[in-house]
Specification:
A two-stranded antiparallel sheet has the order 1-2. With 132 residues, the chain is mainly alpha-helical. Helices cover 73% and strands 3% of the residues. The protein has five helices and two strands, in the order H-H-H-H-E-E-H.
Length: 132
């Protein structure tokens, strides 16, 4: 008598069957760009600590056309990552109540995006002010 093999559910492409999961997987894939940019920043700090010659060489590498294109791709991926992260935020937070009414999801997303934009502009202004 032959033993029956257990049923194994096919897992290939499970996330492509539902648009929500497709968006989720694309969002998670953009985390690779977040890590890549963190690595670039880490290398920058190491080169800066190494000395002026190492820093100058690193800046020359960063100004190369390939690195400029890579930074453009990273910027696009990070903007998408931030956008989707703030869109997910209302679903992950506990209900927020103001004046006895629940705050709408669109309001939470908008406040998060505006806060991130204002914070970024403040950091840019601080860097500009320190550079003068």
């Amino acid at each position: 008598m032959s033993a029956r093999r257990p049923y194994k559910r096919p897992m290939a492409g499970w996330w492509r069957r539902n648009p929500f999961f497709v968006e989720y997987m694309v969002h998670e894939a953009t985390a690779i760009f977040v890590a890549l940019y963190a690595l670039i920043l880490l290398v920058s700090v190491v080169q800066l600590a190494t000395g002026e010659a190492a820093w100058s060489q690193w800046v020359a590498i960063l100004r190369s056309p390939g690195m400029v294109i890579l930074h453009g791709a990273i910027l696009i991926a990070l903007l998408y990552h931030a956008w989707t992260w703030f869109n997910i935020m209302p679903r992950t937070l506990p209900p927020i109540m103001l004046g006895g009414n629940r705050v709408r999801a669109k309001t939470i997303t908008t406040v998060g995006l505006v806060t991130a934009l204002i914070s970024s502009l403040m950091v840019f202004a601080l860097i500009d002010w320190l550079g003068k």
